[in-house]
Specification:
heterodimer, A: about 350 residues, alpha/beta, QueA-like, Thrombin, subunit H, 2 domains, nine-stranded mixed beta sheet, six-stranded antiparallel beta sheet, about 20% helix, globular, B: about 240 residues, Rossmann fold, seven-stranded parallel beta sheet, about 45% helix
């Protein structure tokens, strides 16, 4: 399959969506029915890629999570930029605590180097790190995108707080008018904020460990809506993998019960994961073998997903964040008392 | 029916053009009602001084220095405001520019100057509304509101006020159009009347200040009287129409 090489042009039709199972194409709204609860991620995407100089070398930092004050957790990339595939980028130098990187508007002092992944650093900036990012950063992007992305290209129609370092791209499938029509048809909508992280690092060992722990916030109103839907046996549909991770991660920590508040989850959904909350998921199309495929195995057996890939390929679906999507219904669901 | 002030949240407020005049007074009025307020203004120094003053009054106000008239700044404004205050429930489009001073007749106004007025007074509010709209519409329980500060010049034509008047008339209609399309969010505009502000002095240097309203009084009327009651799509006068 080919990747979508950039944001959709003005007026172009939205992403195509394949139902799994069923393997038929429908419009976004047509996969839902009265009574469903659709949960969305309203994170905005921050300009999480910053260039840095270290002893004459030009490096790139990518925030792996939203910064806290002056502190940011970053992944270091060697020379070059997004034009080079991450796996082909030269390795960056190994830094030590105390090393200082020169950004355009701030210095970044290394305070911690991850013992397992030496490219994963904690840095301390001279100013609030979010402010520095908005002053000089660019959206994280990959080699298959043809032009430099602007900040508005990576905002979904639901964007609010700047927590995501890559766009929670399933939200590109929807729009305010679509959500309004769904509400009128008896679908309820609830929101959470999940700090979508990096999807690829170019380092096979680190990629295998993705996603790293991600911050999310679950509002009280959403907990109430989910609990009511569970009690009444209605479907809970996640718009994007980040929503599924937040809901399932939260249920896991509460032994099946949801708790409102701000948390982190390092949950990696996979074939063996029970689904406690989510009955179906809208998600982008990705090739087999990436962590995303593994996540979907929590919903359907690998055979179904492979069939969906074949079907997507046959139909000319496009992959990646600006590409097409699937609506995947869970094969079975662990029903726990709410 | 619209809720009362107590029922409406107005807890997280973003005000553009908040370092002086009506914007500063609005920041005070919202702050006094225990809102978290973020004000955006171009002049970082004046903004900092104004914010420091409001914080000394015990109010939860923070400033961010950006230009509403710059397309590049819009997502910076939206993101920093959401980060500093949390999901914004009240957005006040107060920043505006008169254009060149003294205000020339349209026959002497450059196309570029006209365009600059529209960028700040019309396209800026459109872009910023759009940037925050999804998050606001997802939170109907917070009674999200977008308020456009309008002007008498939006409804009456005066020599020299062409570009500004056109921008304000268009912004009023932008407000009505949003109201027609997006029922999840309330859209209003308010004409504050003639106030004793730097902008008024720029426009009419020889006006007698005694005949002009105090911005603090106008802001109190807007936040205390107009905002709790006005229906979406409506244009109100700050004083004498509450």
């Amino acid at each position: 399959m080919s990747p979508a090489t950039g944001p959709r042009a003005e007026g172009a039709p939205g992403p195509r969506i394949l139902g799994v199972p069923g393997y038929e194409e429908r419009a976004f709204e047509e996969f839902l029915r009265p009574g469903d609860l659709l949960v969305v991620n309203d994170a905005a995407t921050l300009p999480a890629s910053l260039f840095a100089r270290f002893r004459g070398a030009r490096l790139e930092l990518r925030f792996v999570s939203p910064p806290e004050g002056r502190t940011a957790r970053v992944l270091l990339f060697g020379a070059g930029d997004y034009h080079t595939r991450t796996e082909d980028r030269p390795a960056p130098p190994v830094l030590r605590p105390g090393d200082r990187l020169e950004l355009r508007t701030s210095m970044a002092r290394v305070t911690h180097v991850d013992p397992q992944f030496l490219r994963l650093l904690t840095v301390e900036l001279d100013a609030p790190a979010l402010q520095v990012a908005y002053a000089e950063g660019h959206p994280v992007q990959y080699a298959y995108i043809e032009r430099p992305l602007d900040l508005w290209d990576v905002q979904t129609p639901l964007a609010g707080r700047p927590w995501a370092v890559e766009a929670p791209s399933a939200s590109y499938m929807t729009s305010l008018p679509a959500l309004r029509r769904l509400r009128a048809q008896g679908v309820s909508i609830a929101t959470l904020t999940h700090a979508a992280g990096l999807s690829s690092t170019g380092d096979a060992r680190l990629d295998a460990a993705l996603p790293l722990a991600e911050r999310y916030e679950l509002p009280l109103a959403t907990v109430a809506a989910v609990n009511l839907a569970r009690t009444e046996g209605r479907r809970i549909v996640a718009l994007g993998t980040t929503v599924a991770r937040a809901l399932e991660g939260n249920a896991l920590r509460g032994g099946g019960q949801l708790e409102a508040g701000r948390f982190e989850t390092d949950l990696r959904l996979g074939a063996a994961s029970p689904l406690r909350v989510v009955s179906a998921i809208y998600t982008g199309v990705h090739e087999e073998g990436v962590s995303h495929f593994g996540l979907l195995e929590a919903f359907r057996p690998a055979g179904d997903l492979r069939h969906a890939l074949e079907e997507s390929e046959r139909r000319g679906f496009l992959t990646h964040e600006f590409g097409d999507g699937w609506f995947v219904e869970a094969a079975a669901r662990e029903v726990l008392p709410a | 029916m619209m809720g009362s002030m107590e029922e409406r949240t107005m807890k997280r407020v973003l005000i553009t053009g908040g370092s002086q005049g009506l914007g500063l007074s609005l920041a005070r009025s919202f702050g006094k009602r225990e809102a978290k307020v973020v004000v955006v203004a171009r002049d970082a120094e004046r903004l900092e001084a104004s914010v420091r003053g409001l914080r000394k009054e015990g109010l939860d106000v923070q400033g961010i220095a950006f230009d509403v008239g710059s397309k590049e700044d819009i997502h910076r404004i939206a993101a920093m405001a959401e980060e500093l205050a949390g999901p914004i429930d009240t957005l006040v489009h107060n920043a505006s520019t008169l254009g060149p001073l003294p205000m020339p007749e349209l026959s002497s106004l450059s196309c570029e100057a006209f365009q600059a007025v529209l960028e700040t007074n019309l396209l800026g509010p459109f872009r910023l509304t759009k940037a925050l709209l999804g998050s606001m519409a997802l939170r109907p329980e917070s009674s999200p509101t977008v308020l456009f500060v309008s002007s008498d010049a939006a409804t009456s034509a005066y020599p020299g006020w062409g570009a500004y008047g056109v921008s304000k008339a268009a912004a009023d209609h932008l407000m009505r159009s949003f109201a027609a399309e997006v029922p999840e969010v309330r859209f209003l505009s308010v004409d504050p009347g003639e106030m004793d502000t730097a902008m008024h002095r720029d426009a009419i240097p020889d006006a007698d200040p005694a005949t002009l309203a105090r911005p603090d009084a106008v802001a109190e009327a807007i936040v205390g009287q107009v905002l709790p009651k006005a229906a979406t799509g409506s244009r109100r006068l700050a004083l004498g129409d509450a």
